[in-house]
Recover the amino acids of this structure.
């Protein structure tokens, strides 16, 4: 896979980068290891000072950083600026919390003398494989916790966002990170084994598809490296009969169509109780009709192209397969036709999806919603859980206690009441089932790749 920027709106190949050689990767591993030896010994405040500076640079140059995202993967400039702000917030979160997270934890013990504590230690190099749909946010999610904890990173970003990959590496260098603390590598898929097999690499974090997760988790298993997998999703969006329907439909249109539907935790399956199904459908169409397609660099654009033409073609094929299995497809109007140029996919909605339709088992990574009619709350939960994925989900009801009870029965890592799954610096992220394992963000993500060591200084002589 060649590393290159192809603008999804203009189709122009703007920049290409050579793939790293085996020798270059070997040198990067050496540099990262040397950097780790010094970085891990620094007081945590010296490490978080780098993150603090990086957050400041991002905030001061938000439009410039955002423009790279819009150019490389097509998201609207407004969403891109939001992503830059969120990435800065994640860096700042660990500036504020890393010292506290690193503190030793005394364990309650019935020993009359001495103490047992858990101490936390960075381990070395982590290999991160990251996707293009949130090119900075995904990097911040691993870099902020792990760098503040004292680990160092070798990062393979997606091949279509090389400029964002370089911009993030340069951001940390500008902020004062020593060379080797954060290294971007334009690695081929095959190079993953060279990196993961290196004994100085102590962990592997991947965010991406199930297919990539299976390959990288397999290599992590082969070389006995701890791994976290943040994979795809098919989030349910349950609408109960007591939901505030106008507000719910608005959330549905945003939840399914922001980032051109290319979000792991998009609202992908609307599961609506029969008594409000028709009204919800009508309101959803009206909300989608407010979205405005156009040049993603234009701040008035609210519906973006997908990240490349191949994905548009793949999504059409996926819809055709669902229709061949009996689903109906409805084209949804926006406030204007999608432009002739650019990798646009005009929003669609699948209905009449039978339980055996392959669509029930797949992630639609673009602006195609699925709409299910269910009898009641009980059936809604059943349909929601009949998915191989378990990332997020949401429940819409005016009765929050009822929403929480439904949330408890959903087999996913995250559930939101009255809004779609969202992302914030101080809320952890992670799924179950085929959506992966492990967490990113807050102390959960911080601890994933630390050696949490037992230090026992209890006087046991009297016991023998
Ligand atoms: P992808 O094809 O799996 O790519 C993700 C990353 O994995 C890229 O860097 C890609 O590199 C790399 N990769 C793919 N196959 C590989 C292999 N065999 N060996 C080594 N590296 C490999 O995913 P995508 O289609 O770009 O991204 C969308 C998927 O990511 C969706 O399923 C989405 O739900 C999921 N996602 C999950 C989360 C989460 O937090 N759970 C967040 C965002 C996205 P190349 O670009 O070079 O192929």
């Amino acid at each position: 896979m060649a590393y290159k920027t192809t603008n999804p709106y203009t189709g122009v190949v703007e920049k290409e980068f050579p793939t790293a050689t085996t020798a270059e990767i070997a040198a990067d591993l050496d540099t990262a290891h040397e950097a780790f030896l010094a970085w891990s010994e620094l007081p945590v405040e010296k490490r978080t000072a780098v993150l603090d500076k990086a957050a400041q640079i991002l905030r001061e140059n938000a439009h410039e950083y955002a423009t790279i995202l819009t150019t490389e993967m097509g998201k609207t400039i407004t969403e891109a600026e939001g992503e830059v702000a969120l990435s800065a917030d994640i860096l700042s979160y660990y500036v504020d919390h890393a010292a506290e997270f690193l503190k030793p934890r005394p364990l309650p013990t019935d020993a009359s003398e001495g103490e047992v504590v858990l101490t936390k230690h960075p381990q070395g190099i982590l290999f991160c494989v990251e996707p293009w749909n949130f090119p900075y946010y995904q990097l911040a999610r691993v870099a902020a916790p792990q760098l503040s904890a004292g680990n160092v990173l070798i990062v393979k970003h997606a091949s279509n966002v090389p400029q964002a990959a370089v911009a993030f590496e340069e951001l940390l260098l500008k902020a004062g990170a020593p060379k080797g603390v954060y290294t971007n590598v334009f690695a081929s898929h095959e190079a993953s084994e060279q990196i993961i097999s290196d004994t100085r690499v102590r962990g592997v974090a991947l965010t991406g598809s199930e297919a990539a997760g299976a390959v990288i988790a397999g290599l992590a298993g082969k070389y006995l490296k701890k791994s976290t997998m943040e994979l795809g999703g098919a989030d349910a969006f349950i609408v109960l009969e007591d939901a505030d329907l106008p507000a719910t439909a608005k959330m549905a249109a945003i939840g399914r169509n922001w980032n051109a539907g290319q979000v792991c935790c998009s609202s992908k399956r609307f599961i609506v109780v029969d008594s409000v199904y028709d009204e919800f459908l009508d309101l959803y169409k009206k909300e989608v009709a407010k979205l405005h397609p156009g040049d993603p660099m234009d701040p008035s654009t609210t519906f973006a192209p997908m990240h490349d033409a191949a994905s548009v073609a793949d999504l059409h094929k996926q819809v055709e397969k669902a229709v061949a299995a009996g689903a109906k497809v409805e084209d949804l109007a926006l406030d204007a036709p999608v432009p002739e140029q650019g990798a646009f996919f005009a929003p669609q909605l699948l209905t009449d999806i039978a339980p055996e339709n392959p669509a029930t088992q797949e992630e639609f990574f673009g602006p195609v919603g699925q709409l299910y009619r269910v009898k009641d709350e009980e059936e809604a939960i059943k349909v929601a859980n009949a998915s191989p994925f378990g990332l997020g989900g949401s429940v819409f009801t005016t009765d929050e206690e009822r929403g929480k009870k439904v949330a408890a029965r959903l087999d996913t890592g995250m559930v939101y009441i009255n809004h779609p799954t969202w992302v914030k610096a101080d809320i952890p992220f992670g799924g179950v089932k085929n959506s992966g394992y492990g967490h990113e963000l807050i102390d959960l993500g911080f601890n994933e790749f630390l050696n949490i060591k037992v230090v026992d200084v209890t006087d046991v002589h009297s016991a023998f």
Notes: The longest helix spans residues 77-102. The mean pLDDT is 97. The pocket of NAP is lined by residues 1, 129-133, 156-159, 189, 192, 207-209, 212, 215-216, 230-233, 264, 363, 365, 391, 429, 431, 435-436 (CB under 6 Å).
